Task: structure prediction
Amino acid sequence: MLRRSLYSCMCTRNYANQATFQKKQSPLMKRIVNEFDNYVPKVVDESLAKMTYVNMSEMKDRIKKASEYYTIGRNPVQGEFMLSAYESMNKDLKITDELVHQLQVVVTTVEMLQSYFYFWDDLEDESETRLNKPCWHLVDNIGMMAFNDACILRSFIDEVLRQNFNLEMRDKIMNVYHQVYFNSSMGQHFDAEVSRSKNYDNYTMETYDMICVLKSSAYAIKSPLLLALVLSNKLNKESIDIVENLSADIGILIQCHNDVIDYYNTKGNVTGKSGSDIQLGKCSWVAAAVLRNCNAAQRRIFNENYGNTDPEKVNRILQLYEEINVEKLYKQEEQRRFDVFNKKITTLPKNATPSAEFFKSFYNLVQYYTQDVSSFMYDK
Result:
């Protein structure tokens, strides 16, 4: 292990503006976020019941199981981000049963969209565990049919939206999702191609940022904010430009955080998804940071051992990461990303939507999910 565990490091960091952030939730936020596991099955069941063109109970059971497998039992982080933005744009909000239902549907579908990506990601990474249970493709001999299940889940998300929103609102929400599908798929392509090339000269921060903007930022940060704008009827060129400008650094930071967690999972120190970036030769933030900070001898060690499943070679890479002090590099990178984000906030006009005040609170909410590995982003 490093001199201190990542858990200890993240819990004791001293930020410029505050110590450890304590998350605060409004009554509406508590109702939507805290009851997530209870209403997701209801949204799924009601939508399946209305799908009269699907008559086979076996197929409906499979859709239900696939929809809920990764979705239930984790923190609905993207849903919480969306709700936080939505409330900031609607100060005098009248809470009705219809509003609560629509918010529940959007939170359900945005988290099902995350499950859709988990299906693909776990298959391509040959992962074994996710959220402390076997990956979907390893359940009940599902295997490669997980690809088809992912396609069904994507279509089912559209069906849930179709049943619960009018045509105009549904199309706007689906347009956000379709952008996420497209951008994330391109990001997945570049992620796989760079890793497959094993040309470690290309494992730069510029390459890493490009992949993250497509694969991570678009989903983790940009899409929740765009959804809030859609639901608030405030989606326009100006608001989209603001979200585009302020999403990248925070989204990249979240992925940096997950890459560091993957490293610690490889060492068996954190529960959740089993670590595999080293074995697969991924252009992770850890790999890019180490290559940027290593000497010639250390680079030879990296070249000779990275991207290999041999336990001895994996351990040699882990030793190299310790030597270069990944923990220290991560803390520096984290602070730099937050500093860039805060600087952008100061340039926003007073009437900006989303507002500078919202982004300041959003900054704190993101910190809550990256300050401590016990939160582990998507795992309760």
Summary: The chain has one domain: 26-370. Residues 6 and 100 are 38 Å apart (CA to CA). The first helix runs from residue 6 to 11. The longest strand covers residues 129-130.
